[in-house]
Amino acid sequence: MGDKAGMTPPSRLLRSALFVPAANARALEKSRTLRPDALIFDLEDSAAPGEKAKAREALRTHLSGLGAAPGGPLRIVRINALSSAEGTEDLLAARACGVDAILLPKVESAETLREAAEALDQTDAPRTLAIWAMIETPFGLLEVSSIARQGRSLRLEALVVGPNDIALATGIRPGPERTEMLPWLMQVKLAASAHGLLAIDGVYADFRDAEGFARECAAGRRMGYDGKTLIHPAQVEAANAAFSPSAAEIAEARAIVAAFAQPDAQGRGVVSLDGRMVERLHLEGATRLLAALEQGGTQAG
Ligand code: COA
Ligand code: MG
After folding, report:
1. DSSP-derived secondary structure letter, 158
2. 217-232: burial string, b at 16+ Cβ within 10 Å, e else
3. What is the pLDDT of residues 169-195, one digit of tens each?
4. Could you list the mean pLDDT of each consecutive 10-residue stretch along the chain, which spans 301 residues?
5. Interval between CA 26 and ligand 1 midpoint (Å)
6. The pTM is what?
7. CB under 5 Å of ion ligand 2: residues
8. End-to-end alpha carbon distance in the chain
9. 141 CA → ligand 1 middle, Å
């Protein structure tokens, strides 16, 4: 079932992905100064029906005014559904602006990904232009396994949870620990792991509640999520910190790599490190962690 390449999680740090409403000129301007791992310029939910065309043009102007910024935040555009009047124009505008990924809202089947991938292929989009998918409806949650499996050949790179739409569509009222949503959150994470995709946790709306936000980040990290979508600049630093490997984890990874590099560890599957058993599978995880850190450069907090 699992293709070997697909099972390797991406070694890229994607701890913080800030939604920037393209309909809000001040937010667009502010985003120049911010350093999340990704900026998601939004043309969907945060733009009212009557302002979508204007938001798209404002975004086009904004993005074409930005130079290349290697090492800066990924640039992602959340477009309206391709089945809507705006979707295709959004996709073409994002493609023309040379963004890193297109985020599709409310994905419910791999067919939606195929449609977007074909539209991108028709514009000769580079292979590096990725598709991210929001999983935020009951059908999306039910189909997430097939979306992730088929998405691998359709530019899919990340699954993003949309808790507000999930709550609206299902009538659940998640408490502070999100107990009511845990099975679905884990299902998305499992599908991402099975197919080597990034898993990005949902937004935390109360942007003045730093404590609650930190708790939810920590829970997301324990669930194996790579990072979190954000709605406010005040959340960037805390998310970067929460989803970065801790100093202890980094030290442990270095110790594991060093232990397997010892001459007497050559060819051995298991070694002992400070009185604990360490296997080659731990070496794999340690190597991946150190590679992601290196790739994240100075951003690693
Ligand atoms: N991206 C970039 N800049 C943002 C921002 C964001 N998501 N949210 C706020 N800012 C800016 C504000 O424009 C303001 O800049 P200024 O001082 O130059 O005017 C500064 O950060 C402080 O903002 P603040 O006054 O605390 O909040 P606000 O009342 O302006 O905005 C929200 C609050 C919730 C309306 C706003 O954060 C927002 O629109 N978030 C994103 C919503 C979204 O994209 N939803 C869809 C995905 S769920
Ligand atoms: Mg939504």
Report:
1. E
2. bebbbeeebbbbbbbb
3. 999 999 999 999 999 999 999 999 999
4. 51 90 98 97 97 98 91 96 97 97 98 98 96 98 98 97 97 96 98 97 98 98 97 98 94 96 92 94 93 64 34
5. 8
6. 0.93
7. 45, 162, 165
8. 37
9. 29
Please list every protein residue whose CB sits less than 6 Å from any atom of ligand 1: 18-21, 24, 26-27, 30-31, 42, 45-46, 203, 231-233
Ligand 2 centre to CA of 216 (Å) is 19
- Strand ranges for the chain from DSSP E: 16-21, 38-42, 74-78, 101-104, 130-135, 156-161, 198-201, 227-230, 270-273, 276-279
**Cβ contact 131:113 at 8 Å:** yes
Residue-range domains of the chain with CATH: 16-243 (3.20.20.60), 247-296 (no CATH)
pLDDT for 168 equals 97
Show the tokens assigned to 116: 């977007």
